[in-house]
Amino acid sequence: MGAIFRRELKAYYASPLGYIVMAVFFCVCGISFTGTYSAGNASLSNVFSIASVVVFLLTPIITMRLLAEDKRQKTDQLVLTSPVSLTGVVLGKYFAAVVFFATLLSVLVVFQIIFSVVATPDWMVFIGSLVGLFLMACALLAIGLFISSLTESQVVAAVCSLAVSLFFLLISMFSSFISTLIKNTIVTQIVDYVSLFNRYNDLVTGVIDYSNIVYFISFVVVFLFLTVRVLDKKRWA
Amino acid sequence: MIEVTNLTKRYGSHVAVDNATFTIHDGEILGFLGPNGAGKSTTMNIITGYLSATSGSVKIDGYDILTAPLEAKKRIGFLPELPPLYLDMTVKEYLNFVYDLKKVKLPRRPHINEICRLVKIQEVYPRQIKNLSKGYRQRVGIAQALVGNPDVLILDEPTVGLDPKQIIEIRNLIKLLGKTHTVILSSHILSEVQAVCERVIIINQGRIVVDNTPENLSRIMSDDHSIIARIEGPRREIMAALKSLKGVKSVQAAGAGGYGQEYIINPIVGYDIRRALFSLLAEKNWPLLMLKSSEMTLEDIFLRLTDGTADTAALEKALQARGDKPQEAGGQPAEEEETADFAKGEAAEAEQSQAEEEAK
Ligand SMILES: Nc1ncnc2c1ncn2[C@@H]1O[C@H](COP(=O)(O)OP(=O)(O)OP(=O)(O)O)[C@@H](O)[C@H]1O
Ligand SMILES: [Mg+2]
C-alpha cells in the first residue's frame, strides 16, 4: 500500500495534469481572493463558495488515471500479482488522490493567514469550511476512483465522473425545489441523502456537526468497498 | 513447487483452459508450448492470481492462491505477456517501486544492482522507460520478475523482442535460475523450449496434449527412422543398389536439384544401414553429399500434435509404456557445460564493457 501510495502521489507531480489541476485551482481561488481582499472583506466565504464548485470539476481529473491507466498499460498485472491485498491497492491509490487534493487546500490556509494579519477573521467558520470542502472532495474522489475501476480509458473515466459529480452538484442545488415539487417523503429523503453539497453548506456555518462528518466518511467507505469489489469481480470475468 | 489441479477457465461458453492438472517440482524448468490462443497466458495468469479459475486449484509451495493469496504471491515473480511497465518512471524508480511493492527484505542497492547486471540494463538504468526500445523494455520486465528473488518464476514469452545475443543470454540466465528456482516459461519457439526446459507441456485449445521431456518426445514420435541421403551418380543404378542393400525396406527418390539426387531410405526396424551404405557408395565411387536421419524435430511433433490429426491418446500410451518419467531425463553433463558457457559469456561481457569504458 505504501509503495502504491508513493508512486501515485509522485505521478501527480510528474505529469502536466497535476500541474494543470493545481494551476486551475490556485487561479480561481486567487482571483476570488483578490476580489474579496480589495473589497475590504476579511472573509473567505466567497472564495470557498467558488472553490467548492471547482472541486466538482477537478476531482474527476484527479481520479481518472488511477485504475483505468493501470488496466490499459497492463501494469495491473504487476500490482495485482504482488503480495498486496486489493484493499491495500485501492487505499494506496485513494490516499494518493486525497493527499494531492489536500495540498491544493493549502492555498486557502495561506489566504486565511493573510487575512488574520490585516483583520480578525472568524476561524471557526474557516475551519468548518475547510473541513467541509475536504470531506466533500474525499467523497467525490472515492466516486471518481470507483468509476476509474470500471473502464480502461482515462477519458471515459473522466467524462463519467464529471457527469456523476455534476449530477450530485445539481441535485444538491435543486434539492429544495425538488422537495416542493414532489411531495413524497421517500424522494425527499433520497434527494437529501445524495445532496453532498448541502452537507458541505451545513459545515460552512462553522458548526461542526458530527453527523455530517459521518455522512461523508460513510460515502467514502461505500465507494471504496465497491471499488474493491469491482477489482475482485474482474478476475472472475 | 507448483501444484495445479483440474484447472478450468471459461470465458462465457468459450473454454480457455480445460481441466489442466500438473505439478512442477523445485528446480524444474517447465516449458509451455502451444499455438496462439491455446491458453498459455491464461493458465499463467491464473497461477499468479491475476485471474481466477472457473474451477480447480493452484498451490504455490502449499499455499492456495485463492485462500492464501499473499503468501502465495510472495513466492512468485511474474513476467506477463506485455511487460507491466510504468512508462512515466525511470528504470531506477520502477525497480525501486517494485522492490517496495513486493516488500522485499534483501538489501536494496546490491539486490537491484545484481538484477540489472544479470539482465544487462545498467546502461539504461537512469532513463525513462517510455524512451526505451522494445528489447530493453522486455529486459526491464524480466528484471521486475526477479526482484525479491522469488522461488517461483513465471515468464510469459520471456525472449520476445530480444536480439539474438540477448536471447541466448536470457536463456542461459533462465537455466541458471532454474537450478534454484521453479520456472515456468511459455514460448512459440520450439528450439528455445528444447534448449532451456527439462520438461515440456504442450497445450492445444486449452487442453494439455503432452507432458514429457523434449528428448522423449522427439524420440517417440519418430518411429520410422528413415534416412535421407543425397548421392551423385546414375539414378537408376543407385536405386537398384540401394534396394539390394541388406536391411533396406524401401527406397524413394526425392528432390533432385543442385548436385545429385536425394533418396529416402526406409530400413527395416532394428537395422542401422549407414555403414553398409558407406561401403557400397565407396566401392562404386558414388559421392555421398549428405546424409541425415529424418528424425522428427520438436517442430514436427508440435505441428502434428496441434493440427488435430495426431492420435494423442495413443501417443500418451506410448510415452507411458516406455516408462519415461520427465524427471529422469536429466542431461546432467550437458547442463554443466551450459553453466560453463554462461560463466564464459559473463566474463567476455565484462571484458567487453570494460573495453567500452576505456574507449570512453
Ligand atoms: N478476456 C477474455 N475474454 C474472452 N476470451 C478470452 C479472454 N482472454 C483470453 N480469451 C481467450 O482464451 C483463449 C486463450 O488465450 P491465451 O491468451 O491464454 O492464449 P495463449 O496461449 O497465451 O496465446 P498466444 O500464444 O497468442 O499468447 C483464447 O482463445 C482467447 O481468445
Ligand atoms: Mg499468450
Mean pLDDT of chain B: 81
Question: Which two protein chains have the largest interface (Cβ within 8 Å of the partner's Cβ), and how many residues from each?
Answer: A-B, 24 and 29 residues
Unreliable residue runs of chain B:
321-360
Total helices of chain B: the number is: 13
Helix content of chain B: 40-55%
Chemical compounds bound to the protein: adenosine-5'-triphosphate, magnesium ion
- Tell me the major beta sheet of chain A: none
Shape of chain B: elongated
The string of secondary-structure elements of chain A, in order, is: HHHHHHHHHHHH
Number of domains of chain A: 1
> In terms of per-residue confidence, which ranges of chain A show pLDDT below 50 for 5 or more consecutive residues?
none
Bin the strand percentage of chain A.
under 5%
Tell the overall outline of chain A. Answer: globular
Give the class of chain A from helix and strand content and strand pairing.
mainly alpha
Q: Portion of residues in helices of chain A?
A: over 70%
How would you name the oligomeric state of the polypeptide chains in this document? Answer: heterodimer
Distance between the termini of chain A: 25 Å
Strands side by side in the biggest sheet of chain B: 6-7-8-3-9-10
What is the tally of helical segments of chain A? 12
User: For the terminal residues of chain B, how far apart are their CA atoms?
Assistant: 47 Å
